[in-house]
Design goal:
Strands 3-6-4-5 form a four-stranded mixed beta sheet, covered by helices on one side. Strands 1-2 form a two-stranded antiparallel ribbon. Helices cover 23% and strands 30% of the residues. The protein has two helices and six strands. The chain has a single domain (29-127), classed as 60s Ribosomal Protein L30, Chain: A (2-Layer Sandwich). By secondary structure, it is an alpha+beta fold. The model has no long low-confidence stretch (mean pLDDT 97).
Amino acid sequence: MKTIVRNPTQGVYPATEDYVHAIEVQNPQRILYVSGTMGLDPSGAAGKGLGEQLELVWSNLRAILASADMNVDNVVRVTSYLRDAAYAQANQDARVAALAGRVVPTTTIVAQTLVEDWLIEIEIIAAD
């Protein structure tokens, strides 16, 4: 698989340092679509606070990726759902750290979660 960052500088607003407008994926062998994943521990309990939930959500995503013989290097798209807009910076920092600084197309949406204790939900697309 080959990926090409498509981040035009003409005719569209500039992307910030933490994301790109698009990634073209050429000749993927597999594409993994991961459902919205929360910051829950293995028993299904929500982490205490945003920081713990961000750690758990990325741990959960790594486990899901590993089940498909993939890792965070395979992530080509991230969508985050935040219970509060105030979580945006912490979410961005956690994503950048989880991806080791690699930037991908990302969208963040502020939404009411199904359970009040769920502060963050992240869905990803991965390819290889």
